[in-house]
């Protein structure tokens, strides 16, 4: 090999290695919360400290919902505050919509037009509606029209650990497959679903994504990917409710291929917003 070819070959290899290293450094956490939890102090009350903690752990992009969206009725104020808190940071705001409130369609408009949000995060159990509610279908259709991703939080925590005065059951996912077959352009991501829920109801939905925050068991992510499509699983830590390191350990204990790892770390999330 002459000098010129050696330099060209070495440069190409170096560039490929640098690109691979840059890809490996990307990490999108699709499931965090910001602000004060209504039931306990968790560590996301101080935005700057929370962002710094995520950055130290290698997170380059985080999708943040607001704890205030669980119980407050002034959804417009919640979303406005969240958008302001996320502006200019690694945090991507996920707007709260409560379709049981009057004029909730205007809240969707504000999220998209006023705040430039691409993601809506729903809490049906805390907002006292189920997936059979006609407004849920209307919301999915509206989200498809605006190319919004819907994040549906199945549960915030196990019922056994909840305050007995405010005990909230998980969302019943049984109606979801039929609804998604009906509204094929809607895109829904389940947050905090466990393996039992997935096996019973939703594995066959082509327009459904999943985070692994509540997928438990040794090699849980590896085992999940034996039946769940690789391109529909994303990294979700559920920080600060869960210790962020638990999400990292779930990946480390699973034998994932480089392609699977890249898909879960950032590729699938990026594709959803392009």
TrEMBL record:
<protein>
    <recommendedName>
        <fullName>Amidohydrolase-related domain-containing protein</fullName>
    </recommendedName>
</protein>
<dbReference type="Pfam" id="PF04909">
    <property type="entry name" value="Amidohydro_2"/>
</dbReference>
<feature type="signal peptide">
    <location>
        <begin position="1"/>
        <end position="21"/>
    </location>
</feature>
<feature type="domain" description="Amidohydrolase-related">
    <location>
        <begin position="43"/>
        <end position="273"/>
    </location>
</feature>
<dbReference type="InterPro" id="IPR032466">
    <property type="entry name" value="Metal_Hydrolase"/>
</dbReference>
<dbReference type="InterPro" id="IPR006680">
    <property type="entry name" value="Amidohydro-rel"/>
</dbReference>
<dbReference type="GO" id="GO:0016787">
    <property type="term" value="F:hydrolase activity"/>
</dbReference>
<keyword id="KW-0732">Signal</keyword>
């Amino acid at each position: 090999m002459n000098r010129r070819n050696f330099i060209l070959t070495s440069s190409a290899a170096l560039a490929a290695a640098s690109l691979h290293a840059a890809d490996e450094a990307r990490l999108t956490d699709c499931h965090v919360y910001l602000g004060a939890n209504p039931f306990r102090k968790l560590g996301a009350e101080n935005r700057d400290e929370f962002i710094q903690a995520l950055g130290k752990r290698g997170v380059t992009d985080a999708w943040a919902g607001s704890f205030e969206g669980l119980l407050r009725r002034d959804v417009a104020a919640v979303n406005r505050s969240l958008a302001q808190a996320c502006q200019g940071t690694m945090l991507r705001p996920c707007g709260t919509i409560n379709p049981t409130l009057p004029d909730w369609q205007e809240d969707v408009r504000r999220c998209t037009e006023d705040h430039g949000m691409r993601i809506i995060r729903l809490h049906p159990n805390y907002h006292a509606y189920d997936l059979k509610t006609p407004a849920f279908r209307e919301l999915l259709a509206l989200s498809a029209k605006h190319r919004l991703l819907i994040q549906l939080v199945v549960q915030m925590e196990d019922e056994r650990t909840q305050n007995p005065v405010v005990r909230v059951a998980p969302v019943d996912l049984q109606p979801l497959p039929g609804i998604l077959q009906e509204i094929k352009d809607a895109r829904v991501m389940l947050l905090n679903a466990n393996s039992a829920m997935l096996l019973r109801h939703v594995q066959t939905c082509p327009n459904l994504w999943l985070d692994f925050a509540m997928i438990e068991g040794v090699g849980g992510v590896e085992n999940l990917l034996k039946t769940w499509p690789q391109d529909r699983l994303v990294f979700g830590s559920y920080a600060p409710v869960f210790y962020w390191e638990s999400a990292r350990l779930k990946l480390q204990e699973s034998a994932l291929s480089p392609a699977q790892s890249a898909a879960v770390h950032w590729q699938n999330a990026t594709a959803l917003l392009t």
